[in-house]
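User: structure tokens for this one?
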Amino acid sequence: MEDEKLIPRILIADAGVLFSAIAYDGPESTVLDSKMFQFMIAPHVIEELVAALPEFGFGRQEIMRSVYHAGVDVIGGSPERSCMDEAWRLIGGRDPSDVSTVALALSTENDGIWSSDKDFDGLVGIIKVWSSRELLGRGAKKD
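Assistant:
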């Protein structure tokens, strides 16, 4: 049985929740602004945000500023080959753009992935996937 009192500290953030946190004032922005968690992202997440957020008036500089002010760490470098292979096996068939996020989760010390993307549902029992609702239930509030 999963510990319902577990409070995660280090989470790998998916591009979708960061998009929502930056573009909208909702649950994702509350979680990101709570300063309760340390977030890490793979470098490709920045590129996904740069591609998706211009229609909301955000350019690369504003996105980088938002990520920096939220304390999100961009983890560069390549995960071990075995982690990339395992990530492809776990999620590559559903969404290849999520492979580097899963590889980052497999290759670093963390408490799971923060995402609302249903593609991560296949990771149950392998990597904990936290929803914004779960993180709010653990006490995340705007700082």
